Amino acid sequence: MLDAQQNNPLHGVTLAKMLEDLLDFWGWAELARQVPLRCFQSDPSIKSSLTFLRRTPWAREQVEAFYLYSLRNYGPDAQR
């Protein structure tokens, strides 16, 4: 069971942590451009975005995919 999670880069990363990391790196405007969700485009806040993403699996999948893209291409400690 542990082996299955060893190669999962999302293991142990909360949705809140993902969103905070993405915002620190990209900011609201670029995040909204890269992942075109209304919760990022219109009066964005972490609280409202987390509420929406927790209730909307397809949107959460998009954010997770973009988070993985960011990790692969820019690394966990990258700065723009």
Give the helix/strand layout:
Elements lengths: L1 H5 L8 H20 L3 H4 L4 H10 L1 H18 L6
Q: Mind explaining what this structure looks like?
A:
The protein has helices spanning about 1-5, 15-35, 40, 45-55, 55-75. The radius of gyration is 13 Å and the shape is globular. The mean pLDDT is about 90. The chain has 5 helices and no strands. The chain is mostly helical and about 80 residues long. Helix 4 (about 45-55) crosses helix 5 (about 55-75). The protein has one domain (about 15-75): Transcription Termination Factor Rho, Rna-binding Domain, Chain A, Domain 1 (Orthogonal Bundle).
- In total, the number of domains comes to 1
CATH architecture identity: Orthogonal Bundle
Count of runs of 4 or more consecutive helical residues: 5
Q: CATH class, anyone?
A: Mainly Alpha
Helix content: over 70%
Spell the H/E element sequence: HHHHH
- Sequence stretches where pLDDT stays below 50 over 5 or more residues: none
Total count of strands? 0
The best one-word shape is: globular
Q: Keyphrases for this structure?
A:
single chain; 80 residues; mainly alpha; Transcription Termination Factor Rho, Rna-binding Domain, Chain A, Domain 1; 5 helices; 0% strand; globular
Give a quick rundown of the structure.
By secondary structure, this protein is mainly alpha-helical. It has helices spanning 2-6, 15-34, 38-41, 46-55, 57-74.
